[in-house]
Amino acid sequence: MICLGIEGTAHSIGVGLIKDVNKTCRVLINLIKTYKPEKGGIHPREAANHHAAYIADLIRDSIQKAKVDFNDIDLIAFSQGPGLGPCLRTAATAARALSLTLEKPLIGVNHCVAHLEIGRGTVKGCLDPVLLYVSGANTQVIAFAEGKYRVFGETLDVGIGNCLDKFGRAVGLEFPCGPKIEELAKNSTHYLSLPYSIKGMDIAFSGLLTAAENYAQKGKRLEDICYSMQETTFAMLTEVTERAMAHTEKQEVLLGGGVASNKRLQKMVQIMATDRGAKFFVPSRDLCVDNGAMIAWLGFLTYQSGQRMSIDESIINQRFRTDMMEVHWRG
Amino acid sequence: MVKKILYRGAEAEICLSKFMGKTVVQKLRIKKTYRIREIDALLIASRTKEEAKLIAESRTHGVSVPILYDVDLVHGIITMEYLAGKRVKDILNSLEETERKRICQKIGESIARLHNHDIVHGDITTSNMILLDNRIYFIDFGLGCKNGEMEAKGVDLHVLMEAFESTHSKYSHCFTYVFEGYKKQFHGDASSVMKKIDDIVRRGRYR
To answer: How many Cβ contacts (< 8 angstroms) between chains A and B?
Structure first.
């Protein structure tokens, strides 16, 4: 089965094509266009306009580059939520139009679950992981328990990516700030103490962000602040992930989301996993960031497990929680 | 010193050990190599200190806790009394209903005594209670803190409520016995704590 997936929850619009091969996911093509605000954070309407401007070309390009025909597509999947309303609606509209035109079934999926399933589908040996999902908006520790994907820990305020971006903006770095902060952090080993905020398995970043901004205002070396921010926030993330692994007694950890590309975070989670005798997995970068292939793959799994969706049911859900998705494809 | 590991958690190891000729339990916070030394040392020292303080203070308010023998902030070790009792988690389901009710009420009374002095345990589950000589000992204050807010107290009780629903699902009605005991000892307005618990349930992710 070939499935086309459309991702559009936030600043990226993506189209991916996947084919299932022996229960694993083969990515045929995975194209992404990212909206960059001129200043400030994402403006939802501008982002949606950006997506609307590119989606048709992306679909056409992906079909051509994957060397398939429109008639080869068996299923259309789209990100139904969670995310920014205008962006979700743009992606959903494109998906509905494609579904009606090609007369192929339509299925909406949960974006967060897609981040986890693409790991299970493409990374060899990844069977039942605890996912540390770290992106701009989302920061969650997710694992499969009692028939659903459950959130064991999550941020109580902003996502880690958003935290890094907000700091970056305050000191004049360009969006996305994460990679720039990672580069700057490499030039320091001088730790400035920052609030370390863990509540059970949940975490909070806002106090740390304020403290980091205060350091910047006081003229502390930017490299030192970046280093300290990374070390503190990533230690918090690694700690809650380990707690979730101990709690669920799972032996695998998977990274997902845009911040998963950060080498320092990867290394910390890997050390934690090794010390516990657990396995560590991280998908390739293009499958970590928001992308259409992961939506397509989860669409395939959902459809394959017998679920169907009418156009009426395809309404988007900005607050589509991770545990709202029925998971029939896992025992 | 010969150590026998009783339990290994995400953060600490619980070992059976000897201290001045006595059999004791040591809670050792493990160094985490993934985080830098500065953060690791700070966390281990501050958490060890906070936990020891909460255990010591709980005792002064009439809540049964292990006796502290030594606190080592550099190595992150709390040495305390070994309680050769049974975990409430393991025995609760097999008790007679009247006995179960009595135990649950006692649990509630102890939690109220903690909350009267703004001690929030942070992880009240039946695995963290030991029954010995007809007393219920509270252990593992590792997630605890001092907090006077209703919200914190509600969350504290909600954790136990969830534990009843998952681990003692046949006897989840026992939480009402816990609350009976709580109401008896709590100095503040117990009904507003209950209201908080309802709020927490309703805003929960899985509801």
So the answer is: 51
Q: What is the mean pLDDT of residues A222-235?
A: 98
pLDDT at B19: 94
Q: CA B15, CA A213: separation in Å to the nearest integer?
A: 42
Please answer yes or no on whether B10 and A321 come within 8 Å at the CB atom: no
**Average pLDDT estimate for A117-129:** 96
- Residue A38, pLDDT score: 85
CB atoms < 10 A from the CB of A2, how many? Answer: 19
The shortest C-alpha distance from A233 to chain B (Å) reads 10
| Residues paired with residue A150 on neighbouring β-strands, in sequence order | A143
Q: How far apart are CA B68 and CA B81, in angstroms?
A: 6
More confident residue, A272 or B171: A272
Residue ranges of E strands in chain B: 4-8, 12-19, 22-29, 68-72, 77-81, 86-87, 119-120, 129-132, 135-138, 145-146
User: Is there a common fold for A2-116+287-324 and A127-282?
Assistant: yes
- The domains of chain A are located at 2-116+287-324, 127-282
Q: Each residue of B2-46: pLDDT tens digit? A: 678 888 888 899 999 999 999 999 999 999 999 999 999 999 999
Q: CB distance B34–A231 less than 8 Å?
A: no
Q: Residue ranges of the alpha helices (H) in chain A?
A: 44-65, 85-102, 111-122, 160-170, 178-185, 206-217, 222-248, 263-276, 285-288, 292-304
Residue B167 has pLDDT above 90, yes or no: no
pLDDT tens for each residue of A273-299: 999 999 999 999 999 999 999 999 999
Q: Does B195 touch chain A (CB under 8 A)?
A: no
Assign domain B86-203 one CATH number from 1.10.510.10, 2.40.50.100, 3.40.190.170, 2.40.170.20: 1.10.510.10
CA-CA distance, A151 to A171, in Å (whole number)?
33
CATH of segment(s) A127-282 = 3.30.420.40
Q: Is the predicted pLDDT of residue B98 greater than 70, yes or no?
A: yes
CATH of domain B4-81: 3.30.200.20
Domain boundaries along the sequence of chain B: 4-81, 86-203
Out of B10, B34, B43, the one facing A271 most closely (by C-beta) is B34
Residues 97-156 of B with CB under 8 A from A: 122-123, 143
Architecture of domain A2-116+287-324: 2-Layer Sandwich (3.30)
SS3 B107: helix
**H or E stretch at A2:** strand A2-7
Q: What is the ipTM of this complex?
A: 0.89
Q: Do B39 and A235 touch (CB under 8 A)?
A: yes
Statement: residue B143 has pLDDT above 90: no
